[in-house]
Design a protein that fits this description.
Layout (H helix, E strand, L loop, with lengths): L7 E2 L2 E4 L15 H4 L9 E9 L22 H16 L5 E4 L10 H8 L3 E4 L17 H5 L9 H19 L7 E7 L7 H9 L4 E5 L3 E3 L6 H9 L7 E2 L5 E2 L7 H5 L8 H18 L2 E6 L1 H7 L4 H11 L5 E3 L2 H6 L5
The structure holds zinc ion.
Length: 340
């Protein structure tokens, strides 16, 4: 997702997360995680999601140009994504990625083909990282503020629709697969509530689910306390998947994602804080048979967590759960909510 503006207020900030894309396919290695679920127990579904885009303020705080070329991934970001996929698969899970179509303008996309071949899910994140909530051309994306001629003569809904369809065409052309699911660029605490037009657009384009809701939780920006971790874990209950009146399924990004945890010039969380929060949330999901949908961006994580400790931790917690949890793509989570 990658919110454009950090949500900050005094000592606390509202943390948002953004989340997942589709994907199913559990590689053979995940058998260990699935076989022991006790009858009647609802298995926790854990998603490790990576939005494949560049993020402002990374790798250095003064870096803002990414807002105009979100899809121009660096080698470091691509390598981090591939290595994350290898590590998670080795422990029986998959990644749920969301891709900007513009990434596919890059010369080499072998790394993406490897992700798909290895069974990781890749969903649609629009072509240019446009806001589906936009009501004026200026709100769509920075790129179109600087270069408005690119969308000249088109209405805002037309640009949004085209931006989603172009991504599908780019994926089919260059990596030979259709997108698995949709995650909105940015996120909203209300998701797509009150926007049946967007819900219907996504349904019309063939999506059964979207990940657009990014709940906020007030926490201490630096040096979070046990009470903060508990508050975030408690908030998981109100960020579980649900179905909109139109039938579109919402899979919220679980609080807190990497943006909400790390992207501040001062008083940011340390990696240890993030890991502690992730552990609390995974344990909450296991205890309640719920969903935890972790939002991350490799462009942020390569700086904040270069040794992949968050992903390894999730795999280890799920591996030690005696089958009470499973790492899945968002498509698998959506299936629990589909009308039979
Ligand atoms: Zn994004």
């Amino acid at each position: 997702m990658d919110e454009s503006k950090p949500n900050f207020s005094r000592r606390h900030f509202l943390a948002g997360t953004s989340a997942v894309a589709a994907g199913a396919l559990v590689p053979g290695g995940s058998r260990r995680q699935t076989e022991a679920a006790a009858p009647g127990d609802k298995q926790a579904l854990i998603a490790i999601t990576l939005d494949l885009e560049m993020s402002m303020h990374y790798p250095t705080w003064d870096m803002m140009e990414w807002n105009y070329e979100k899809g121009n991934l660096t080698s470091a970001v691509k390598q981090y994504t591939v290595e994350a996929g290898r590590r998670v698969k080795a422990k029986g899970g998959i990644l749920q990625c969301f891709l900007l179509g513009r990434v596919l303008e890059q010369e080499n996309v072998d790394w993406l083909k490897e992700l798909v071949r290895e069974g990781h899910a890749v969903g649609n994140h629009t072509y240019d990282h446009v806001s589906v909530w936009a009501t004026s051309p200026e709100q769509l994306q920075y790129r179109f503020q600087r270069a408005p001629w690119l969308i000249r003569g088109k209405t805002v809904p037309e640009v949004i629709r085209e931006n989603i369809l172009l991504t599908e065409a780019a994926m089919e052309t260059r990596i030979g697969v259709k997108p698995l699911g949709f995650r909105t660029p940015g996120g909203s605490t209300e998701g797509l509530k009150g926007r049946p037009d967007i819900q219907k657009l996504l349904l019309d384009l063939g999506f059964t689910w979207a990940s657009s809701m990014a709940p906020g939780v007030p926490v201490t920006p630096a040096n979070p306390t046990d009470a903060d971790f508990q508050a975030v874990a408690d908030a998981q209950a109100s960020s579980q998947p649900f179905v909109y009146p139109t039938g579109l399924i919402e899979i919220p990004m679980s609080p807190l994602g990497d943006v909400a945890s790390f992207r501040r010039e001062k008083e940011k969380w340390k990696l240890g804080d993030f890991l502690k929060m992730v552990e609390h949330n995974v344990r909450w999901a296991i205890d309640h048979g719920g969903v935890f949908d972790l939002l991350t961006h490799p462009s942020i994580m390569v700086v904040e967590d270069p040794e992949f400790r968050a992903y390894e931790l999730i795999c280890d917690l799920v591996g030690a759960s005696s089958g009470r949890a499973r790492i899945v793509g968002l498509d698998e989570i959506a299936k629990r909510h589909q009308v039979k």
